[in-house]
Amino acid sequence: MPTFWTRTLIPTARQVPAEAEVPSHQFMLRAGMIRKLGAGMYSYLPLGLRSLHKVAQIIRQEMSRAGAEEVLMPAMIPIELYQQTGRDEAYGDNLFRLRDRHGRTQALGPTHEEIITELVGAYVGSYRSLPLTLYQIQTKFRDEYRPRFGVLRSREFLMKDAYSFHMAVEGSGGLNEIYDSQYQAYCRIFDRCGLKYEIVEAESGPIGGSASHEFMVPSPTGEDLILKSDKGNYAANVEKCEIGHRPADIHALTEPTGALEKVNTPNCPGIEDVSKFMKVKPKNMLKTLVCRAGEQWILAVVRGDHELNEGKLKQALNGEAVTLADETQARADGFAIGFVGPQHAATRNDIMVVVDPDAAQAQFWVTGANEIDHHVKHFNWKRDVLDRIDASRVKVADIRNAHDGDPSPRNDGGILRETRGIEIGHVFKLGDKYTRAMNVTVLDEQNNRFHPIMGCYGIGVNRILAATIESAAGHDENGIVWPASIAPFQVVITPIKYEGRAREVALSLADQLEARGIDVLVDDRDERPGVKFADADLIGVPLRLTVSPRTVQRDSVEIKPRRGEVAETVTLDDLHAWLEAWSAAP
Fold this sequence. Notes:
alpha+beta
């Protein structure tokens, strides 16, 4: 049964909403796909919901093909589950918290690792039941401080999250095998959705784990920064991106550029402030950040125009948990926050210095003087640090974010280039982080207790819609350009006047197409042709069939693909052959 425009809700708009900053937000509002209810909260109208359902159906088919079974878990979760893994603190203010009438604290789930682990722990007791992969498609919640870009960064969002459980990493049924299976399923899902995407190495973030890949749709409006080698053999997001070899033999540095000179720099705690005050470039300054790893103070040193990467710093410290130090605690322990220099390590024995290769060079340096409102010129690594402390307390390692123009970590002459992307999927190898924290075990073949190993695989369902629109092929000045697989309708039939013979032909065509499994929207409104054509372009239906008095007389129909520049006339007898050829085209 076709859908009639006058019997559904498609409130199109000509004006761009003032709050909509990016194309997907603008066109989803203008096409009547969504309506804003509050900050980061949207109602999905019929067009938007139809596309969501189509994406979800593709996901379900490919998850089934990959051997995953669907479940549905609660959205409201006892806070104790997150407390067991420490993620009540890791998520911080992004975690929605509420109390029920009995005073019990609950959370609205941003993700469900703890809940699926509790579920499996309740029912799976033996290695014979593994591997096991379960997934759900459900609304998630994140208390974004500043929701923006429509459904790209909203407070509630629809996700598919899958979780796999294993006895081993390698071998049949191991984590690597299922990870690869899910990885390939993701490729099939995004291919079927008509998306152009890239796969990049990624950090696991608050979810945790080891190996991790993100699926990104390239877009200038993307919030994620991606770096790719110009040789095409490496890509990673900025949090994960490694940098190729940069020579830095810090122990060979000898000649200072001058005597260490202290300069009063009042009200200049930042790099840019000091740079202007002292008339030096940020690349000639050392940025020293005070960090904490257990009971050890860490001075992480990068060049003034670079940013510290905490994930890389953790890796440089052999995986030890490390965070930026609490400023109050650091000041109380003698650190002049905002004015710290690496030479402070020489004043005490409980400080380790980790320096990025670009900061470990023999050149003119300005850095903090370890005194409020003061910096020093002519800092020298050998004279001011290495000659005064044990060499084991200084380590050179890649600890900064990569930048455009850096050498590729493949060390093959490739250069990293920056681009932006929208994350639509993420796969992780979690290990036993959650089963161990929640004391979930199964019996292995020797009847010993074992913490199962986990994988995690997420897809942003509504993000797929927005990312499709944001991509280069997903919109033009007239509106959305949907791939047929996830378009709310594949065909819109537009009678110039919905009456008489034109009405009969339109309804007959609609019934025939629906019988072939093609979703049809009949524009039965009493509107001018220009309005109907503009709305058809705006909502992005892949194919428009126009029925007019002229085409009716010729037993034909005018066909206009959304991606095409011109319309063509096809006889009704030839229409189905034309549609077959169109459907088969790439």
